[in-house]
Amino acid sequence: MPLCDPADGVVAPEKSSTPDLPEGVPRLGSFYIYLSDSCNMRCRHCWIEPQFTKGKPDPGHFVDIDALGQAVREAKTLGLRAAKLTGGEPMLHPRFAEVVDLLTAEGLSMNMETNGTLLTAEAARQLKDKTNVTFVSVSLDGADARTHDTFRCVAGAFEATLRGLLFLKDAGFKNSQVIMSVHRGNRGQVEAVAEVAAKHGAASLKLNPVTKTGRGTEMHEHGEALDFDEHMALARYVDYDLGPRAPLRIILNIPPALSSLRSLRRTGGNCGDCHVRGILGILGTNQYALCGIGSTYPEFVYGRLDKDSIREIWLNNPTILHLRQGLGDADTFPGICAKCIFARTCRTGCVANNYAVGGQLIIPNWMCAEAERRGLFPADRAQRKPAAVEAGKSSG
Description:
This protein is α/β, with parallel strands linked by helices. The chain has a domain of 248 residues: Aldolase class I (TIM Barrel), CATH 3.20.20. The chain contains 15 helices and 12 strands. The radius of gyration is 21 Å and the shape is globular. About 2% of the residues have low confidence.
């Protein structure tokens, strides 16, 4: 899995009680639950280190279901309405079905990120018919077995993933998404992956260029990841060539400030923000964390699932307070972000990726920083006026 991927498709229940929060504190809207800290794949870009015992995948550490239930009930008083199930591979959890049933019984809307290889026809039907899982994304990194399996480092992964997609289709999921981790070795297969994804029932294809996190760092160091120019070329290709004729919707992770007008019209500029101010991560090690980055950077672990109060963490943790304050006022954003008209939409993008690349949570996305350095940042998108200036104009 990528370090972080916004929860596409998660829809909060229509009815939810008013959270018990002090004025000015946002609701804790969603848990990102990393059910297992292991995987049955050995993907070259991932931030986790999968565990195997006698050649077979081992779930490693996994979330305690009883402690999770207690955490959910406490978090609902803070506004919890949704959860994303991810990992590692979430279906490696030995009590996966019970976890989903628990979250459904608590009224949470869910989405899931999976490599699809552990899905069965029965499991897909159960998810669709008996749970609150509304959206499933499946990783597919090539249009053929050689490309996909080489990246996933497990023979047979490609065929197993395609079977999983068909199980979702047959179960009635009409909005499934394929996520492709794009790098120099597979960028020429984007169109072919779109065709394979559509053929196997996916409604959208999300392109996530490999980030400089986890083992993806090594790919960057070896020149296998896309650089700035290749990112922008991919965006133009998607927007003006492939997108209009593709058999399904294609989404590319790129800052809105660098997006084309065509893309902005399609999304309304509503992209980039990872919504971290309303999210709390739960790691497979039964620890609260900023998100999955806590597995790599222990400074972003906030406490233990079976020990510490979520309310205390949500109201008083220094990192949460830093993000709440720092991301709440666009006038204080650093660098080009302070001038960007999308500042309040993007909020510097994924703070975990920011930290992995630049050592700070609140800094400009590396692509925006590079565009500014080259003099390529669109001038018409660097004209945001501070709120105080706007207020002065209005009063005048």
